[in-house]
Amino acid sequence: MTYHRRVSVQVEEPGRAFREAWIAGVRKRYPGEPKPGYVAPWEATPEWERVSAATVYEQVRQFIEVAEGATAKLTREQKGRFVALCCTAQIFRHFPNPKPSYVADWSEMPEWQQETDSDIFEHIEQALISMR
């Protein structure tokens, strides 16, 4: 990825793009049959989750852009940790006392979720590359 100057790339529906990347990751990595809420289509996603998805997508996009592509050098785990931390902040934003499993630290998250979060970051990264 070459960045000669900072160019802001916008996705028409960042929340939907995030949600689609999440669903793809869950379908690929979840052991067994995922919970219906994990793979619910965008139209059936609660409003707080739509807002959160759009916010996290934008945080990842901005992170990639201000790093001028240097995020390509991050490990998959580092990329996934960034997504997970942004998601955790959104849970706290919308719920004063969330279930501990909703705000678990990276090391306490199931592997399928860690891998899905890494996939999401890489999906956004690839989308930015293809839009340049």
From TrEMBL:
Give the protein name, as stated in the record. Uncharacterized protein
| Organism (species) | Micromonospora haikouensis
